[in-house]
């Protein structure tokens, strides 16, 4: 937890925002970041309203990201990193501007609204070599990291099957008229081409590749607009092939009435399997071929370095989503401070972001065509 | 539980059999059947060995089903019904012979080895009007029936999504050389065209249609032979459309190492959802749109008539698979005694059987072609 | 499962009975017993009504146990064992009569209504050396036996603490006026000195001693009559010392509203602990000092002989209370057939019965005196 | 979440501390406190080492609480509140000094090492009327507050039974020689008269009274020193009477090998019951008399104001122990800002603290005497 504190600017997170405050709590939790500047809303008044609450000096509250980047660059105590927490459609422009200004970026997922934008971001990352991280929340949980480490170490032998599911129910009714969170997520102009697949399907994809170590090489998607009048999918079910061979299933839904936020992943190998469910996030189930299960808990002495490093409290003292998010921020600080190789490794980065945007595009195409499609974009 | 005791003959169930003894325990549990004759093995010696254990008179132990049907027909106290518990490939011939002799049949699933055979059985059922039931085990559980009744009564509004999964791990290694249960199930000559899909996928299909009240109208299957050298699938993942509209997912696997027998179904509707998992069979989860769950338990006073009738003990006194099976036998007795309309209703019958055999064939075709296919057999 | 079938008579189990039919299903399940005679009710008509349902010859249905014992003794094909399923107050007389007639007895718990009766039964057992078993249901579960075997084998080192709880809620209201099961259980004349402690507390005691291998040597009980007007306790909480040293807690309640039948036991030792809960009876949790848990399931290959012998089905095929009961009956057959040493060992017998009756008496005294009391009856 | 930020000083929390950093994360999470001064260790060097990590100005790091209180009082921007996170034996002196200096105090539990000290603190609170809060962690969980609110609103009728248990296993071995956390907790000079009862039993007591609304009026304790050589109890089991009438059980153990931190409470009433377990803290189980359970989750719309106010994230986004702790800090800010009446109400305060210290003393006496004892101290 050592290391100097970094000065962070935030875009997004104004009054009523959900994910911006999560970024703030997470950034501060381990004392690696201090939020000293913000373009918290496109309304300067609202930006100041929230900034006052957060103790940000009024003269460091801006109406837009570009203004903030420019003004902060001119200060001796200017920001050293940027958090992007706006709706998807503005991610690319803000991120690219920051990277070109030499500012490390930590961006909410999905990376952008379109694949084309994602490719532009990828170019900027490649050209600038400035650290770029994505807050795929679940990658911050200790027991997800334990599963990933154990799979990589061969604990279950070669991977044979992967199932990831992400059921939510909060869009079971057409609430987009009155609920701002629902509004932009169901609007192609702000969310991009993917509805449920873009908002939560990408989490499931990221978890699949993060934990299994395999890559999706083909898919056959079935996207539905269950609630009448929607322009984007609110339910998606996708058959996968990983590394050309391993079968997989990805389900994501925002119309599974009664479900809260139950992302869950199961990875089966030659000699057992792992199961992790967000509903009890400090637990990892390891199944053995003899039908016994070993249940592992965060904080316990038998866990590996990756899980230990992502844990703050002893076993039985639950850490939740804010702490998982904070672990990503802590990693981000490490990446800035000199270990950039953890990006696209334990800390999701540009590769994860780019693959997710391609995945959304391919899933939409596959579903429309009723065809299997390779990750290169060929119909099979 | 009233009603006279019926004289039952059994085919299959010889020494070493798994499902035959389950049929026997189930048939006797509620005192509706007495097993008085058997062709328990193709070896008369083995038939007699098992028959002695079960208290069957030696002169009513036969070397084959046909011999038994003929001999018993000639007795005043001859059998009144037949249980078929052999491997799939012999189901059709035995069943048709029995039906034509006027004997009600209760047959293990899947109904036959091929769709062609299934259609022959269907013709025999249609022509003879003799009761024919299939032991789709999970349809005998009280809480499955409660879910079915509640869905039908509109408890969750219109159904919007169905997910059924059936993971097992016992075929994770190539044990078919030494394990008789594995041997016939992985052999196309005895099992038919489907491996995992034929053995357990049909259970998942039956549960989907039984609980949701919808019918599969299209599918896109991905069948794998994960363990090297297998001639039949040991893992299958299938996208579904039900009633042309509702998305569904069916997963069945016998190579999910560490899994025991975890069949589970989730049905989501406009106003909530149900979840039932075999691992805690006396429990039904009903999710509400407000994110609360109601957990219902077998034997409780608030349950409907269907669940009550399928329960023998007060709440908290677990009933298991044998009792679920016994409920099917009890229903079978009712069907024989004069309420044949429960067949293809609460008691799985010829329609379920025929649909399952068609499903296996379509899934194999769909997977080979990498295409969506309608339940009528057209590629989409 | 081998062995000849034994002819069994039953006392109790008439129309409306709960536990009698459980005995019947259990006795028949493994083909070791055939119920050929019965004094199913003190009304001969009712005895015949139930007997007809069960296929017992009318001339072997009796109005009383004594008549049955005498008449059957005179037959060449007379009963070879007796099941006692009446309310507690009649257990002693029936049991003693049977034992003196040389008939092995399997009796429901608690053994008698009073300690004095229990001591008489114990004398009869000692004098006749005829097998006597008690149906402490939970001792029949495979995973309870696995826990017992593992504790005995030192899997968790020396035992340090034991907690058993048995919450039910069905007597939360004063239903004894209308519910026959509640009526006799709350009536000292029929149930004896113990209410909840006699009906279910003794199960908890038996589980404690059965699994831990230790014996209660002192207790301090707090018995309550929560529902107004009750003559017997309906809630009891008891501090224990086992083997003079090990602390324990026993809770039993019939007024824990909403609870079904949640008996649960936890045994902690120097190097880990076990937990078994009736709500998921095929599962045993073994806790390790490193905070991981190993979850074991009935039917799995890694289990010991005791659990294997108490399992009929593969892992993931739940067996329930009837099967656990059937395991006791199977053991009873073994005890009759020549392995009487399993009595008071894996099969509960006279020692368990006698200790339970003493425990009830001591708990009532301890609670009234508000004092710790030794198992020898001295106040501490 | 509004309100100005308060300047907080901390005593304790130096390098290697467990609970101090938790206080820090919790205090900052909701932006109601900024830690600007500290006497983080009795070694000034260590205080500075930790303070540097936390961004506290070096000149506001002190070697002792008294020095800090005096020096900060002299500053215009001096601290406005004090967090006490040292071992129990120093709580009283620090707290009293702070209160007398007019500084609101938030103190870790148990309040003091002895009852006499607790009474002194109580006098100081009474005399100064300065806000005093205790961090009984579990009182900060949303679903504990929901249970408390529902019980108070009569959701289950009159309370009939309460069971609280707090099993841990981390002191199963005599690690006190090498583990600083174990060292002071097992040392009467630093921990006081209670071992497990003082460290975690008081949490269980607080939960019992907090959720049920009842008060312990008598107890019969059985405290054990399971691990050889201990001077204080490491396992305790206590029979309770609440409001002179309602039976209760309290178990706390630090030698339940394999247990992590499984505090759990069950409250049964006339018309159902509640169960909350720390292992899944965002869940509350409400049992109904019809044997169904309603499962409630934090963040859901149907919850009451108390739970809503203690939740930061939508349902299915787990909050953990740090957030529960933060809720106590948020309440503490409210108490300082003008709603002191929440103290000893939803925010544990002096009354809870005093009762807990008396409880420890009585439990030790009761156990030694093997007697029931009233909360007034009379043997029964």
Q: Can you offer a commentary on this structure?
A:
Four copies of one chain form a homotetramer. Chain A is α/β, with parallel strands linked by helices. Chain A is 36% helix and 21% strand. Chain A has a nine-stranded mixed sheet with strand order 13-12-11-10-6-9-8-7-14. In chain A, strands 2-1-3-4-5 form a five-stranded parallel sheet, sandwiched between helices. In chain A, helix 6 crosses helix 9. Chain A starts with 5 loop residues before the first strand and ends in a 6-residue tail after the last strand. The model of chain A has no long low-confidence stretch (mean pLDDT 96). Chains in contact: A-B, A-C, A-D, B-C, B-D, C-D.
